Fold:
Amino acid sequence: MNISVIGSGYVGLITGACFAEFGLNVTCVDKDEKKVRLMKKGVISFYEPGLEELLQRNIRAGRIHFTTSIGEAVDSSLVVFIAVGTPPRGDGSAEMKYVEDVSKEIARHIKSYKVIVTKSTVPVGTGERVRRIISENLREEVDFDVVSNPEFLREGAGIEDFMRPNRVVIGASSNQAIAIMKDLYRPLYLIETPIVITDVKTAELIKYASNAFLATKISFINEIANLCERVGADVQTVAKAMGLDRRIGPKFLHAGPGYGGSCFPKDTLALLQIGKQHNVGLRVIEATVKANEFQKEKAAAGIIKTLGNLSDRTICILGLSFKPNTNDLRDAPSLFIIRRLLKAGAKVRAYDPVAMKDAKKDLPAVTYCRDAYEAAKGAHAVVIVTEWNQFRNLDFNRIRKVAKGDFFFDLRNIYEPAKLAGMGFKYYSIGRPPVQ
Ligand code: UDX
Structure:
């Protein structure tokens, strides 16, 4: 089967490359000519483990092609995925301009039956809107279906999530479209992936509800962590014991400096806007968003308060990306914290395995270093913001030797408080009692 994916960003490219790996013939479209030129050589502009190799393998096998022309892609495909961005507008609602523009352009090239699939995270009702736009812009009378097939890809683990998903959601109203979509995902039947078939609106809402719920779990445990700090309890153990209750589950109960990334902050705000438009209060999600803002603020304030006057202080930041295994800095807690520290007068030295190039554009005042030890040189405090694996086994003797001070803020709770205190650090983590 021939399919195409319009928009070759993170979601579009993983979708295209993974379907090619399933043996389909895939055309990936992007309006950025330079990006298309690079992708033809198997080169991508962001960091995602395994994606370049996957891409190159499928380019060699002739199963994946790249173009800037939507017309060419629509012509050659039975199924057309829309995977363009839906960035937040000023009020938090999703910007639908790109989805709409692409829908118009697709319509102009439809000459035979097509299944148009929205993969981008789109407000409830978008499927209907896309259907209307396409109907209004068709050049000839042809049949088509609109399907919602939301993605649940975690950055840094996107290929694994595509190849071994917890579920596939297909929202459609036509049996023909459902059969075609099932056929696309046939390789996943072999591993018994649950496939949820529903209507378009329900599928659209599943995506927002899932992300908002995960964000809520994080904000919930972060608030419990804050309480643990006050009463002298240990949030790690609270989370572990909570997670053993199968109704709760152990995932997404790691306290930290607040969630970031391209999805949770954007999707929670967009869902609040959807609630507002339909006059439905979403108070739990409102609280989730508020708690997350507070958590970032609290992380920065805790460092500032502990160190006192920051005007002659140097702080070493380890980890910049919003989570490990990605160079994505969108809504990263690190950016928020660093801005606060700089504003309070501190000098900041930072190291991240892959996100420094991008961070330089946002935060030119930071000194970017070769590794964790160079970043710790002359620092009064070391702060772990992102839990990259290489920070899990730091050589503390080396850090003590190069650093000026002995403050250590572990915002991801990756170390044992007693161990670090035993090595002479003034160790602070999230929601765990300090070692006396
Ligand atoms: C998320 C969803 O997991 C994915 O299904 C969706 O399609 C897109 O959004 P992603 O943004 O890549 O994926 O990151 P994820 O691993 O979910 O983490 C999001 C944020 O939450 C990160 O900032 C992470 O550090 C934070 N987090 C996660 C916590 O603070 N605690 C946790 O227990 C889990």
